[in-house]
Amino acid sequence: MDMSTQYGGTGAASGAPEAPDLVTVSVRQGLEAVDIIRRTAEAAEGVGPVLHDCSGDTLGFLVPPGTADGWDLPGSACTHTSGRGMRFDLPPAEEGSDWLLPPEAASPVTDPEVLRAALGEAARLIEAADNCA
User: From 41, 78, 93, 115, which residue has the greatest number of CB atoms within 10 Å?
Assistant: First the structure.
């Protein structure tokens, strides 16, 4: 599937599907969440595209449009992208950023409930590991 056509528009007014929202988290928690989602049997859809930022501090998970309206998970942020800069047929526009999981190798988006659960589990695993030291 050509992802550039799936999320290239600005919403219903243009006739194109709405652009996905973006959940950003720390790279450590994000990498744990990716592993958790990949291991979880009920996450049949798997993890969608994941963007690694240029500073190496955060990961961004593409989630369905509208997710940002109700996202309230501490330690993360969810923003509407409105399709700004969302070209899936090219490398990310920001120099130094790259796809951890590129769109062609992933589900179209990550289910927000699956992501929320994985991020919660990841936070608990990280806290437990940090407390063992």
Answer: 115
